[in-house]
Design brief:
157 residues; mainly beta; Thiol Ester Dehydrase, Chain A; five-stranded antiparallel sheet; 2 helices; 7 strands; 34% strand
Length: 157
Protein backbone atom coordinates (compact mmCIF):
# COMPACT_ATOMS: atom_id res chain seq x y z
CA UNK A 1 0.00 0.00 0.00
CA UNK A 2 1.44 3.36 -0.97
CA UNK A 3 1.66 6.15 1.62
CA UNK A 4 -1.07 8.11 -0.17
CA UNK A 5 -3.42 5.14 0.13
CA UNK A 6 -3.02 4.83 3.90
CA UNK A 7 -5.83 6.17 6.04
CA UNK A 8 -5.28 9.50 7.72
CA UNK A 9 -7.53 8.40 10.58
CA UNK A 10 -5.48 6.73 13.30
CA UNK A 11 -6.47 4.56 16.23
CA UNK A 12 -5.89 7.60 18.46
CA UNK A 13 -8.47 9.53 16.41
CA UNK A 14 -10.95 6.64 16.57
CA UNK A 15 -10.47 6.46 20.37
CA UNK A 16 -12.07 9.92 20.66
CA UNK A 17 -15.39 8.74 19.21
CA UNK A 18 -18.07 8.71 21.91
CA UNK A 19 -15.93 10.34 24.60
CA UNK A 20 -17.89 13.08 26.37
CA UNK A 21 -16.23 16.39 27.15
CA UNK A 22 -16.26 17.85 30.62
CA UNK A 23 -19.59 19.54 31.43
CA UNK A 24 -19.68 23.18 30.39
CA UNK A 25 -22.21 25.39 32.23
CA UNK A 26 -24.03 27.92 30.06
CA UNK A 27 -26.94 30.36 30.25
CA UNK A 28 -28.85 32.34 27.63
CA UNK A 29 -29.47 35.87 28.83
CA UNK A 30 -32.44 37.99 27.76
CA UNK A 31 -30.00 40.43 26.14
CA UNK A 32 -28.37 37.69 24.04
CA UNK A 33 -31.74 36.23 23.04
CA UNK A 34 -33.03 39.67 22.03
CA UNK A 35 -29.86 40.35 20.03
CA UNK A 36 -30.35 37.18 17.98
CA UNK A 37 -34.04 38.00 17.48
CA UNK A 38 -33.10 41.50 16.27
CA UNK A 39 -30.47 40.17 13.85
CA UNK A 40 -33.01 37.73 12.40
CA UNK A 41 -35.83 40.33 12.44
CA UNK A 42 -38.00 37.86 14.33
CA UNK A 43 -41.17 39.36 15.78
CA UNK A 44 -42.71 36.03 16.84
CA UNK A 45 -44.79 36.85 19.96
CA UNK A 46 -43.91 33.48 21.57
CA UNK A 47 -40.41 34.83 22.20
CA UNK A 48 -41.18 38.43 23.16
CA UNK A 49 -39.28 39.79 26.16
CA UNK A 50 -42.26 39.54 28.51
CA UNK A 51 -42.62 35.76 27.91
CA UNK A 52 -39.18 34.90 29.31
CA UNK A 53 -38.95 32.14 26.71
CA UNK A 54 -35.91 32.03 24.46
CA UNK A 55 -36.39 31.27 20.78
CA UNK A 56 -34.78 27.91 19.96
CA UNK A 57 -32.22 29.54 17.67
CA UNK A 58 -30.94 31.63 20.62
CA UNK A 59 -28.98 28.52 21.51
CA UNK A 60 -26.63 29.52 18.68
CA UNK A 61 -25.16 32.10 21.08
CA UNK A 62 -23.78 29.21 23.13
CA UNK A 63 -22.56 27.05 20.27
CA UNK A 64 -18.82 26.74 19.87
CA UNK A 65 -17.58 27.30 16.37
CA UNK A 66 -17.52 23.79 14.87
CA UNK A 67 -14.24 24.63 13.14
CA UNK A 68 -11.63 25.37 15.74
CA UNK A 69 -14.09 26.28 18.49
CA UNK A 70 -13.64 23.07 20.43
CA UNK A 71 -10.35 21.98 21.98
CA UNK A 72 -8.22 19.59 19.89
CA UNK A 73 -8.41 16.92 22.60
CA UNK A 74 -12.16 16.74 21.83
CA UNK A 75 -12.27 17.35 18.08
CA UNK A 76 -9.26 15.98 16.22
CA UNK A 77 -7.60 18.20 13.63
CA UNK A 78 -6.46 15.74 10.96
CA UNK A 79 -6.16 18.07 7.96
CA UNK A 80 -5.37 21.81 8.01
CA UNK A 81 -8.43 23.21 6.20
CA UNK A 82 -11.99 22.91 7.38
CA UNK A 83 -15.50 23.94 6.41
CA UNK A 84 -18.82 23.40 8.17
CA UNK A 85 -20.84 21.27 5.74
CA UNK A 86 -23.90 20.37 7.80
CA UNK A 87 -25.71 21.40 11.00
CA UNK A 88 -28.68 19.70 12.57
CA UNK A 89 -30.55 21.14 15.56
CA UNK A 90 -33.15 19.36 17.71
CA UNK A 91 -35.17 21.03 20.50
CA UNK A 92 -36.92 18.89 23.05
CA UNK A 93 -38.57 21.74 24.96
CA UNK A 94 -38.57 25.51 25.35
CA UNK A 95 -36.06 27.06 27.70
CA UNK A 96 -36.14 30.30 29.65
CA UNK A 97 -33.77 33.24 29.87
CA UNK A 98 -31.30 32.65 32.65
CA UNK A 99 -32.06 28.92 32.85
CA UNK A 100 -28.79 27.14 33.64
CA UNK A 101 -27.89 24.49 31.09
CA UNK A 102 -24.98 22.09 30.91
CA UNK A 103 -23.36 21.40 27.54
CA UNK A 104 -21.30 18.32 26.72
CA UNK A 105 -19.57 17.69 23.41
CA UNK A 106 -18.46 14.50 21.72
CA UNK A 107 -17.24 13.17 18.40
CA UNK A 108 -19.89 10.88 16.93
CA UNK A 109 -17.99 9.68 13.86
CA UNK A 110 -14.90 10.27 11.74
CA UNK A 111 -14.89 9.28 8.07
CA UNK A 112 -12.46 9.64 5.22
CA UNK A 113 -13.32 10.52 1.62
CA UNK A 114 -11.16 10.23 -1.45
CA UNK A 115 -11.71 12.52 -4.44
CA UNK A 116 -14.39 15.13 -4.74
CA UNK A 117 -14.15 18.89 -4.76
CA UNK A 118 -11.67 19.05 -1.87
CA UNK A 119 -9.60 16.04 -2.90
CA UNK A 120 -8.90 13.76 0.03
CA UNK A 121 -10.97 14.87 3.02
CA UNK A 122 -11.97 13.82 6.50
CA UNK A 123 -15.49 14.28 7.87
CA UNK A 124 -15.74 14.85 11.62
CA UNK A 125 -19.24 14.65 13.06
CA UNK A 126 -19.60 16.23 16.50
CA UNK A 127 -22.62 16.43 18.77
CA UNK A 128 -23.47 18.76 21.64
CA UNK A 129 -26.18 18.04 24.20
CA UNK A 130 -27.74 20.73 26.39
CA UNK A 131 -29.25 19.44 29.62
CA UNK A 132 -30.64 20.86 32.84
CA UNK A 133 -28.78 20.27 36.10
CA UNK A 134 -31.30 17.45 36.74
CA UNK A 135 -30.20 15.77 33.48
CA UNK A 136 -33.26 16.62 31.35
CA UNK A 137 -32.32 16.88 27.66
CA UNK A 138 -33.34 20.32 26.37
CA UNK A 139 -31.65 20.49 22.97
CA UNK A 140 -28.93 18.89 20.90
CA UNK A 141 -26.91 19.83 17.86
CA UNK A 142 -24.83 17.87 15.38
CA UNK A 143 -22.25 19.43 13.09
CA UNK A 144 -20.30 17.87 10.25
CA UNK A 145 -16.98 19.51 9.49
CA UNK A 146 -15.15 18.57 6.31
CA UNK A 147 -11.42 18.84 6.85
CA UNK A 148 -9.19 19.09 3.77
CA UNK A 149 -5.70 20.01 2.66
CA UNK A 150 -5.85 23.02 0.32
CA UNK A 151 -2.48 22.08 -1.20
CA UNK A 152 -3.73 18.60 -2.09
CA UNK A 153 -6.91 19.59 -3.92
CA UNK A 154 -7.80 17.20 -6.74
CA UNK A 155 -8.45 18.39 -10.26
CA UNK A 156 -12.03 19.04 -11.23
CA UNK A 157 -13.40 17.53 -14.41
Amino acid sequence: MEASDESLITDAHRARIGVLSEPFPCVISAVDAQHVRDVLLDADPRYADDTGTAAPYALSILEPRPIGGLPPHIIPRILPGGVLTQSEWTWHRDFKYGEPLIARHQVVDIRERLGGRFGRSVLVIAKTEYRTSAGELVAETAHTVTQFDPSGRGTQE
